[in-house]
Amino acid sequence: MKKDIKTLTLKELAGHLEELKYPKYHAQQIFSWLYQKGAGDFSSMSDLSLKLRRDLEKVFYISNFILKEKLISRDGTIKYLFELEDKNIIESVLIPHTERNTVCLSTQVGCKFSCQFCASGALGFVRNLNQAEILNQILFIKSDTKEDITNIVFMGIGEPLDNYDTVLNSIRAINAKYGFNIGQRKITVSTAGVVEGIKKLSREGLQIELSVSLHGSTDGKRDKIMPINKKFPLKKLIPAIKEFAKLTKRKITFEYMLLGGFNTTIEDARQLISLTKGINCKVNLIPFNATGQGDFLSPAKLEMLFFRDHLLKNKTDVTIRQPRGQDIQAACGQLRLRRINQ
Questions:
Q1: Of 79, 128, 209, 305, which one is least surrounded by beta carbons within 10 A?
Q2: Is 332 designated active site?
Q3: Which stretches of 60-155 are DSSP H helices?
């Protein structure tokens, strides 16, 4: 049975080439064809010998996605719904900006962590994505839009650090000179708080960005909306984050979903200031985008501003994220949930 060549790391591909009696350097050429030129077949790889191309075709194939739906927002955000080889579906989002094009990647089919405000876990967890399925999201969007992709965020469906090895291999392919050649500091991994994964990632020697979905400044609040907090409470999570910041010298982003009437009081703000004190970080406030999940409400404008202003008064680096793609269900998991429930 043929193997999807995009599931291989550069090192693994070089090893396969050696088994086929070819020099390892061809792996770099093949990577360039796959990820820089978007080759869909081996016959187009013109700087490889005809014999090598034929031998590759005997043992490998080059996968692609089936596009099930594509929605374009008034603000330019594009949401894609892809069908995988096993008929499962995932989402990806392109977020264009004046100076950059960011792709938001999914890492799993579904999510096992079931945050109460998020649609991603509403249908449960199915499986991890493989490397090809992660990288194909970038390739498809790049081909579809004919735009250069400048930034990558692992913030789509699933918990990236719960699919650690595959996500790490994907990051290396995204960063590789012969891969997508996107700088490490333009790659962000978001986590709901998988402490072991944060600790491992801090020792990989990478300069990627870490974004932590906090959404509550006490264990009591996080327990109610994020089941993961019962396994990794703040007394475990915060030290791991501090260690990451110390070892990598990177600024941490704390994502804080503003849920109307739940975590938006002045006392919540005070606790958040105390929790993040001494950490090189910024706080990204996210107005809740109603998904139909749970009983949460979008915050009132004054509610958001009071919360933000209290953080600013205490010299916390804070911004309110401007919603993108609200008219096309761009929040994580919404489109997939609607499609499956049809």
A1: 305
A2: yes
A3: 131-145
